[in-house]
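User: Predict the complex with iron/sulfur cluster.
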Amino acid sequence: MILEIDVERCIGCGRCEEICPTVFHVDEELGQSTIVDADGCEYAGCCEAAAENCPVEAITYEP
Ligand code: SF4
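Assistant: Here is the predicted structure with iron/sulfur cluster placed in the model:
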């Protein structure tokens, strides 16, 4: 499984954290999302949904 955030692209919008809060957390100081638990998807597909809904395509997810 590959899960990465491209920090050069991330604009800190928080959509990934809304979709998958156990995995992503937006650091307010950095203004960017970080991965807090790469294996923490609460239900199947949430990391994929987060990647698909990132407005700047900053999330790479490969099961
Ligand atoms: S959805 Fe994308 S741009 Fe928004 S905080 Fe998450 S990684 Fe960053």
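The longest helix spans residues 46-53.
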